[in-house]
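Box S1 | Example of a co-folding query
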Amino acid sequence: MGVVRFFLLLGVVFWVARFLWRWLQPTPPPMRADGSAHALSRCSRCGTLTPQELVVWQGDRPYCGLACRDGGG
Ligand SMILES: [Zn+2]
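Box S1 (continued) | Returned holo structure for zinc ion
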């Protein structure tokens, strides 16, 4: 009967460990699904952080505005 008692003990230890683990871990906050709505892009010229909806793209480079995009250089 040694093997059966061993596995019973193993199961109880495993269950207690899982219970303690869950009890010790703080519940994580729910992930925000709309994270992309507040994403910022850094202007390729001046480095200003600009909301995605206001970014002016030139190829694959983001700019904070037409002035930076069309600026000399
Ligand atoms: Zn800029």
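The chain has a mean pLDDT of 85. The radius of gyration is 27 Å.
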